[in-house]
């Protein structure tokens, strides 16, 4: 890659997650920040699929091409009280829902798990996402007012944190087998507290 470029992890992550939930992936496309290029790409995707997912370009930066283009097509964008994965959007393009996730890798993966996977599994006739309660193996702090999904791994004694809450820590997402669901009103939990986890 040239200087300033990064490898795409989100396309592969979403395509793999979709396939794991009995969704046929039609294509994985990439766009620059050029509005015309993105408009053509999302229009072609909507013509070929039943639902389209995008990642990136939905926050508050100067060049949020996804939000800029889709807002003109009637898209709605905002922020939900979830960490990671605050910025979200939804648009209907030519009758096809376009679901827009934030671009940080963990935010994209968590957004899919929390917002899209349960619905897709229901549509595919699959069992609901499996959740259970496990004991925390260490104490946890969480920001007030935001429902936090921490990456964790199941052990014989409970659930251990894989890494910190950063939304760029894609290796921690790959190492996790559960998301630890910390309610928005909770700011601190001591080790040994039972917490709800959703299996990845």
Main beta sheet: strand number and arrangement? Answer: 6 strands, mixed
Question: Please, what is the average pLDDT?
Answer: 93
Oligomer: single chain
Task: Report the principal-axis shape.
Answer: globular
Query: Which regions are unreliable across 5 or more consecutive residues at pLDDT < 50?
Result: none
Order of helices and strands: HHEHEEEEHEEEEHEEE
Residues in helices, as a percent range: 25-40%
The span between the termini is 31 Å
Distinct helical segment count: 5
Rg is 18 Å
At a glance:
The protein has helices spanning 10-20, 35-48, 65-72, 105-123, 170-175, and strands spanning 52-55, 76-79, 82-83, 87-93, 96-101, 131-135, 140-141, 147-155, 158-161, 178-182, 188-189, 194-199. By secondary structure, the protein is α+β, with helices and mostly antiparallel strands.
């Amino acid at each position: 890659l040239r200087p300033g470029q990064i490898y795409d992890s989100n396309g592969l992550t979403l395509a793999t997650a979709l396939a794991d939930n009995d969704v046929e992936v039609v294509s994985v496309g990439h766009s620059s920040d050029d509005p015309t290029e993105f408009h053509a790409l999302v229009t072609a995707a909507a013509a070929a699929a039943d639902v389209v997912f995008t990642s990136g370009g939905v926050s508050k930066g100067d060049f949020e091409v996804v939000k800029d283009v889709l807002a003109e097509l009637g898209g709605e964008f905002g922020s939900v009280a979830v960490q990671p994965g605050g910025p979200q959007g939804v648009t209907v393009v030519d009758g096809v829902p376009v679901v827009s996730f934030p671009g940080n890798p963990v935010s994209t993966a968590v957004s899919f798990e929390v917002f899209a996977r349960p619905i897709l599994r229901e549509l595919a006739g699959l069992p609901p996402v499996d959740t259970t309660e496990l004991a925390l193996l260490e104490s946890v702090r969480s920001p007030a007012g935001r429902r936090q999904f921490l990456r964790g791994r199941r052990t014989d004694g409970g659930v251990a944190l894989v890494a910190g809450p950063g939304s760029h820590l894609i290796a921690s997402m790959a190492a996790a087998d559960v998301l630890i669901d910390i309610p928005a009103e909770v700011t601190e939990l001591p080790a040994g507290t039972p917490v709800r986890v959703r299996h990845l």
